[in-house]
Amino acid sequence: MNSIIEAAHARRAAPVIAAAPRTLHLLQPHERARWDGFVRACPDATFFHLSGWQQVLEQSFGIRTWFYYVQQDGVILGVLPLAQIKSRLFGHSLGAMPFCVYGGVAAIDAAARAMLDSAAHELAQELGAGHLEYRGMRRAHPDDPAWHTKELYVTFRKAISGDDEENLNAIPRKQRAMVRKGIKLGLQGRVEDNVERMFAAYAHSVHRLGTPVFPKKYFALLQQTFGDECEVRVIETADGRLVAAVLSFYWRDEVVPYYGGGTDLAREVAGNDFMYWNLMQAAAARGCRLFDFGRSKLGTGAYDFKKNWGFTAEPLPYEYKLYGATSLPDNNPLNPKYQLFIKLWKKLPLPLANALGPHIVKNLG
Question: Which of 41, 164, 261, 353 is least surrounded, with the fewest CB atoms within 10 Å of its CB?
Answer without folding.
Answer: 41
